Amino acid sequence: MSERTVSSVAPRGRSIDEILADARSRLDRIGPAEAAAAAADGAVLVDIRPAAQRRAHGEIPGSLIIERNVLEWRFDPRSDARLPIASFDLRVVVLCQEGYTSSLAAASLRDLGLHRATDLAGGYVAWQAAGLPTRPGGEVIP
Known about the structure:
By secondary structure, the chain is α/β, with parallel strands linked by helices. Helix content is 35%, strand content 8%. Strands 2-1-3-4 form a four-stranded parallel sheet. Helix 3 (51-57) links the parallel strand 1 (44-47) and strand 2 (64-65). Helix 1 (16-25) packs across helix 5 (101-112).
């Protein structure tokens, strides 16, 4: 049996940096103040962080907690597991801890047809640094 090293294998696909750049090129990312204004105007802030992260760092009051592994099923208007608010015209602002995973998630929602989906640049960390309201983290809402 021969050992293969990473350098001997031809690269396939794209790097995560390339995938992230592609996702972000399709989004109109917004900062904390704009996200707060969007939420006040009816946009849905969706926190996709795992429960342990939310417990450790806190949450944004009024945000909808939907962990990343079920996001598309909850927001696809064609899914049997969709939320009652799911619609192609819904404005969704996805957030994670620092704004990386949320970019991938928002691009995925765009792929489903939610043309107003975007993410919070800098994530929860940026929201908190901007002095916007937070509260202690709670439980997952299925």
